[in-house]
């Protein structure tokens, strides 16, 4: 019997996986997404804020059909500001200020929910753990084995294309590039979201607005001595913060980049915050319930991101440090470009489609990963390849150019295939 639609199996139902589902459905493909999480996340203990660039906002608006949904769920990030913090003087000095930034701030779980709700029903198989895949002898189909987590039953799914959207520790990437390790950046990040929607934090918010007057439309980077923090507001009076701390690689369980924290660790972080940050920011960090630690990794850029009818997208293709606000934007762009390449070439020329996808995305993401790595080292005061390090307290305007988000390679580029 002749198949009517080409079929893709996507492993991973996070931002990349759901974005691929949108892009491929729009290109006329049938899609099944395999995700080990038992059900759609409604709020995520490890989720926090992220920034969406203008191109990604427009891609999302097309997928969501109702652009106001994205506007209603996010806040503007119109300004990108870097400032040097002098905790003794309890003041911050502006190093750079870009008022044409034009990103939007989203809460991870809200963005995930928007993407998921706009998909046709029954596309995502929740509670299904990917186990293995095999490519047919003629290389035209792929069979995936997955375990239903609740019952331990193993089922097979067959399709024309396997998309690995299974994150920075991708087990599909491991099949083609065994032993490839993530690179520890030299620092970890405390993260948290303070929910100020009730009255109990009203005073903290008022104080904060005095110290950070552009709260609600500004991405603030505070640079201290050998450390930096990021801070912006999310919808519904939630304050998103991240604080990067240089330290040896911590011992933690292999399959997560999020570390469990003890109450002693939280207390120590609170004490340190008072020594490093202006009181208003330290207070936000102290009032946040359940802060968590991300161990910050990336990976040297890959040379290949597809093999026969298997292709990598998102963090599986290019684990990156978060300093350029790229990982979610890269993931969504990967999906959009992949969808257009598949539309252009069709399933009968799958090799050409995947080749074009790789040609468009690999040079861009490779440079962005390396730039983000450098940006992190600058802001953390770590030694740079020229053997110097950045000191925010003495930096002159020329030294600060690279701090800006707009210094990211391909910052405002739209790939021609998306025009
Ligand atoms: C719960 C969660 C919260 C996050 N919160 C934030 C945030 O607040 N801010 C931010 O900037 N970034 C956050 N991220 C990371 C962000 O989503 C990614 O860096 C970026 O969007 C690229 O996403 P990705 O889909 O490529 O990878 P990931 O988001 O890492 O998704 C990979 C997905 O693959 C699934 N998976 C892995 N292995 C298997 C398997 N064997 N079988 C089935 N499924 C599998 C995972 O469960 C996961 O859902 C979060 C990621 C997750 C999973």
Q: Quick recap of the structure?
A:
With 419 residues, the protein is α+β, with helices and mostly antiparallel strands. 32% of the residues lie in helices and 28% in strands.
Structural account:
The longest helix has 30 residues. The protein has two domains: 227 residues, FAD/NAD(P)-binding domain, CATH 3.50.50.60; 156 residues, 2-Layer Sandwich (D-Amino Acid Oxidase, Chain A, domain 2), CATH 3.30.9.60. It has eleven helices and 20 strands. The protein is of the alpha+beta class. The chain is 32% helix and 28% strand. Helix 1 packs parallel to helix 9. It binds flavin-adenine dinucleotide. Flavin-adenine dinucleotide binds next to helix 1, strand 3, strand 9 and helix 9. InterPro entries: DHP_3-monooxygenase, FAD/NAD-bd_sf.
List the helices and strands and how they pair.
Layout: E1 7-11, H1 15-26, E2 30-34, E3 49-52, H2 54-64, H3 67-73, E4 75-77, E5 79-86, E6 91-98, E7 103-107, H4 108-117, E8 124-125, E9 128-135, E10 142-148, E11 154-159, E12 161-164, H5 171-176, E13 183-195, H6 202-211, E14 218-224, E15 227-234, E16 238-246, E17 258-259, H7 263-276, H8 279-287, E18 292-298, E19 306-307, E20 310-312, H9 327-345, H10 350-379, H11 397-400
Parallel strand pairs: 1-2, 1-12, 2-8, 5-14, 12-20
Antiparallel strand pairs: 3-7, 4-7, 5-6, 9-10, 10-11, 13-16, 13-18, 14-15, 15-16, 17-18, 19-20
Flavin-adenine dinucleotide is lined by residues 11-17, 34-37, 44, 46-50, 108, 129-130, 165-167, 171, 314-316, 322, 327-328, 331.
